[in-house]
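Morning F.,

Quick status update on the modeling queue. The single chain you submitted on Monday has been processed. Sequence for confirmation:
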Amino acid sequence: MTVTKYPPSIAYLLLALGSNAIFMWLIFVGRRLLVRPARALLVFGRAPLFYYVAHLYLFALLGQGWPGDTTLAGMYGVVLIGLAILYPACTRYEAFKHAKSEDSIWRMF
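Structure tokens below.
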């Protein structure tokens, strides 16, 4: 089976769309199992621009203070530390945003 992305072959499209359909079906079937992890993802999803800007500065600071090189497994730890730091910040920003009136500019971010 020859799969080419550019120009997209039929095999590539079927693999991409089929894997996405299977993934969406797994989410649909297992959504009851994903209740607690989904709450954490919702916190980041309700303040997306704040999370994006804050994670750029946070990981730049963590990179400046990190001694030497690291492995891929070490980077997973750094990402988890960053998410643990950003989680309360995103919850506070979400509460701040919802405390504003509906026509406030803060509701857009």
